[in-house]
Design a protein that fits this description.
The structure holds 2 protein chains of 2 kinds. Chain A is mostly beta strands. Chain A is built from no helices and 11 strands. In chain A, strands 2, 4, 5, 6, 9, 10 and 11 form a 7-stranded mixed sheet that branches. A 4-stranded antiparallel sheet of chain A has the order 1-3-8-7, with no helix packed on it. Chain A is globular. The chains are: A mainly beta, B mainly beta. At the A-B interface, strand 4, strand 5 and strand 10 of A face strand 5 and strand 10 of B.
Amino acid sequence: DAGVIQSPRHEVTEMGQEVTLRCKPISGHDYLFWYRQTMMRGLELLIYFNNNVPIDDSGMPEDRFSAKMPNASFSTLKIQPSEPRDSAVYFCASRSFRQGKDGYTFGSGTRLTVV
Amino acid sequence: QKEVEQNSGPLSVPEGAIASLNCTYSDRVSQSFFWYRQYSGKSPELIMSIYSNGDKEDGRFTAQLNKASQYVSLLIRDSQPSDSATYLCAVNKGYGGATNKLIFGTGTLLAVQP
């Protein structure tokens, strides 16, 4: 089991540029979550999918953020245009409700810096 | 009022002592409660889950839940320097896994002094 895989691990970009973060959930997990972590606000849930369908995107901060899950093994979080206040660590997590697993398994995260 | 509240710490305890971490939550219908540990620069990892009132023990860790008081705690016995990390309390809002919306507190930083 390779776990939840995120790429890139680090991203430095200039303000106004488009940023795409990628996530591969654990095989068989039917829920996928995108979180953002900052010192000030902690871990915030941005959006989550069930069977590739977005269920709740109420945490997405604004229209500059979008997320897709074209298939069960891949999801993207896109920021366009990026701003310095988007700098944070972005985590992807997955969960299998059918298997009755507790909690969620997190990826290693993507540290985004917008300058 | 925050949905999940924790004291940010740092909580400093000597090696071998009991560390007590606390968490309160605002949504009375919450049913699932979790404690995650996060080392600096790493991702959160699940260490305990609890669903029913009372205590649940796993090795040196004990989770305690009091739904009437909307209170969750984590006790770490025989604290070790390797336990030094941020401990995140998380609550799954709604009944069972139906909503799957896991809300985190901002975490408590634990420092175990050798």
